[in-house]
Amino acid sequence: MFVSLARQAPGFVLRSVVHTSRVLLGRALLILGLLAALVGVAAAVRAHQTDDTRLLQVTRRLVLAVTSLALLAMLLLEVAYVRDDFSYALVAGNSSATTPLYYKLTAVWSTQAGSLLLWLCVLSVMSAFVVRGAAVAHRHLEPIVLGVLLTVCAFFLFLMVTYASPFEASPQGTTVGAGLQPLLRYPLMALHPIALYIGYAGATVPFAFAVAALVTGRLGSSWLVAVRRYAMVAWAFLAAGLVLGSRWSYAELGWGGFWGWDPVENAALLPWLTATAFIHSSVIQERRGMLKVWNVSLVAATFVLSLVGTFLVRSGILDSIHAFGASTLGVPFLVLIAVVMGASVWLIAWRRPLLRSDHRLDGLLSREMVFLLNNVLLVGLAFVVFWGTFFPLISEAVTGTKSALGPPWFEIYTAPLGIGLVLLLAVGPSLAWRATAWRLWMRTLRVPVALGLAVGAVGIAAGVRTPSTVVVVLGAFVVLATSAQELWRAARARSATSGARLPSAAAAVVSRNRRRFGGYLTHVGFVVMLAGVAVAGASSSGKDVTMRPGDSVSVAGYRVHYERPVAEVRSEKITFGARLGVWENGRRLTTLSPAREYYPSLDSSKGTFGRFFDGEATSEIGIRASLGRDLWVAASPDLQTLRSPIDEANRRFATVPPTAQALIIAAIAERYVVRAPAVTFRVIVRSGVSWIWIGAGLMGAGAALALRRPRRGRFLPGRRRQVVSR
């Protein structure tokens, strides 16, 4: 035996040295990144003070160095996940040899330390893009911009070096990983954090430019032009993250809803609301030189709320299914949030004389007024969401008792504000800048309003009785009609001047005005999504029912027939489900297979076989989606009939080899199919849900169109080709 150990010792020592060196390499990359960021901050400050181009060039190179080091650290960690290198505590804690490759690659940011590294990677890459663009167009703002970005990078590097390192070593001899949390094993959920972190990190860039503009006193519209695309990217990815999270909730959690006003969900919604307000109000400053204080305040608020969202996930102060739980990172984030808020208020107060508006509001019936009201409603929504989210802390501080506000409270206040936004989007495109004649405005709205009223009448005739739902759907059609009318008028004018056919003229108009028509398409998508939410909330019907094979239940015109039970054993999970036939008006529509998936537990007290059936479980939802309505079914199988064979297997076969264990587990699962115990199903029929996802897609398409740079100097299509002047 001792000879065998002696032979194994060199290999064991070599593996230990290799594993230790990899962990140390990761830590070294983070420490070097922190040093580079701190030196870069000092160089940026000095470059601003002395206007030294050489120091500015050093700062640019240090930004690129931080980016390279962050990406190398992420690559090192990803390789460890792919190779099942359980010498990393992070890999051992949320991956395993049986975890599919896709989830291994995305498991990094499901952990606290890994998500900090993702935040850093996204921010550093964006900082590198700023280096590429600002060096040409914004030379006087660049030192402060890069200094702020490097300061935030240094903060995240400091957290990983001192508080939550992604390169902690596992206890010696760790050879088995715990696996990824089952609830996160949903393809879209793996992309949800990336989208949110791109949004959060993207909010840092406008904040850096706003600080630079305040410090240098260059508070015209140039800094707004510089941050426009970054703000749009941040807004679009925050929206994508919210939609992906909603889809995950609808298709994976098993409660039947898509938005539950969870604290972490709300924390991601807050910066999206203020970013939306900024994107609209910045247009007023660009065109009229108004709302300067408001714009820098919105930029600062968006960045602060992005930090608040990151803080909530890590502090453990509020209960959420999305949170990492209690940690030591809450205090550093609170300090950063306090510093950012204090510095922002001081800078805005200091530069208040330079932030006076160049013009005043010329008329109430104007596009400026609509944009202003739009901002009031968006900030009002943000306040409602903020108050409702943090009310447990407020109530505990005031009364000593932590009380939470549920979805009904949020809906009471957000519904009228949302309706107001829809109505503003309906009338906004028909108004001109500065002032609009009342009669001209009425004539412009005549056709869209008539269409909306007709649709509202159809909805009422179809049985929609909720006033708010009718108003939202009516408003959505008015928005669609006004946007189409604007495109038709512009295309007709282009056709008259260029001789092009109407479709070609419309394409040319959109190509030349991508920001404008991208905004219209985004508005259409937004109101379509809100209409879907309103209809889904007003038309939901369902029931919980327990059935055995051969039983049926009828819900809202559908007949759901339980045909047979299903059991499947895989290397990483055991699935118990049901095969359901769905019928409508005597015709079979589809087959659904809702199920419950059980992942093995690492708790040995549950027994050799019991741990495979008593681990964490997730729901696989059966959904029959259509443009009209969705049929949603979740299953909760009764495993009590398996308890006796599981206990017997634990007693008699605890020491059998793995191949025999697999056969016994398969036999126990097969018993579920043979015995066919009763299953409790939750069956929900809800209209309008598909339009939520369609609206989100239209919003994404509109954002992509608005972000594309317009083509200039091209020939217009048509019989008489003309050069478009710059």
What topology emerges from the helices and strands here?
Blueprint: H1 2-50, H2 53-82, H3 89-94, H4 101-106, H5 112-137, H6 142-162, H7 187-216, H8 222-252, H9 263-288, H10 292-315, H11 330-350, H12 367-399, H13 407-427, H14 438-461, H15 467-498, H16 502-512, H17 514-538, E1 541-547, E2 552-555, E3 558-569, E4 574-584, E5 587-592, E6 595-598, H18 610-613, E7 617-620, E8 622-624, E9 629-637, H19 643-652, H20 658-675, E10 679-687, H21 689-707
Helix pairs in contact: 1-2, 1-6, 2-5, 2-6, 5-6, 5-7, 6-7, 7-8, 7-9, 7-10, 8-9, 8-21, 9-10, 9-12, 10-11, 12-13, 13-15, 14-15, 15-16, 15-17, 16-17, 17-21
Q: Name the structural class.
A: alpha+beta
Low-confidence stretches: 1-9, 713-726
Helical run tally: 21
What is the mean predicted local confidence, pLDDT? 86
- How many strand units? 10
The rounded Rg comes to: 29 Å
Q: Categorize the overall geometry.
A: globular
Strand composition percent: 5-15%
Number of domains: 4
Distance between the termini: 85 Å
Helix content: 55-70%
Described by strand count, sense and barrel closure, the largest sheet is:
6 strands, antiparallel
